Amino acid sequence: MPSQKLRTRGTETPEVILGIDPGFGRTGYGVIRKTAGQWKAVDYGCIETSAKKDFKDRLMELHLELERIIKKYKPARIAVEDLFFFKNLKTAIKVSEARGVILLTAVENGVSVDEFTPLQIKQAITGYGRAEKSQMQKMTAITLGIKEKIKSDDAADALAAAFCSAQSWWIRKLK
User: Fold this and answer.
1) What's the pTM?
2) How does pLDDT run across 12-61, given as a tens digit for each residue?
3) Cα–Cα distance, 33 to 13 (Å, whole number)
4) Does residue 10 lie within any of the structural domains?
5) Please, is 119 exposed, middle or buried when counting C-beta atoms within 10 Å of its C-beta (0-12, 13-18, 19+)?
6) Residues 11/152, Cβ–Cβ less than 8 Å
7) Nearest-CA neighbor of 46 among 152, 173, 168?
8) 140 in a domain, yes or no?
9) Residue 152 covered by a domain
10) Residue 103 contacts residue 89 (beta carbons within 8 Å)
11) Would residue 36 count as lying in a domain?
12) Exposure of 1 by Cβ count < 10 A (0-12 exposed, 13-18 middle, 19+ buried)?
């Protein structure tokens, strides 16, 4: 069978971006939309899977929930936080497998993917790559017009990844 080039949304100016902070127990997501020249948070939260389920079933649940979010919001791009460092090899492997599911789900749905390290995301949202979690959450909320405190670190990281994608898209376009 001849190979076909996959057509993806996302080559035009993005108006909706989905950010993902990968995990297998809890995956953060954040949807941002450009309205009147400003990026605003539309939806955010966590996809949580039960530790009582088989790992493959947890990955399938992650896949199905991501598909639901993609179909609902129709993002032009998906920004995924890259696995930068790890303390536990077993956990890192499982998170990497969850990232694989996330990337495959994006490709299956024809959405372009951007991958960023935590350092790049912190730089985009705070201007400082070594910012503390509390600084990240506060700046993410301010930047995206969220009035209440973002309760989940994972959701805040996902929103910040989405904003990083928005910022880097404009930079790439200028080149």
Assistant:
1) 0.89
2) 567 999 999 999 899 999 999 999 889 999 999 999 999 999 999 999 99
3) 11
4) no
5) middle
6) no
7) 152
8) yes
9) yes
10) no
11) yes
12) exposed
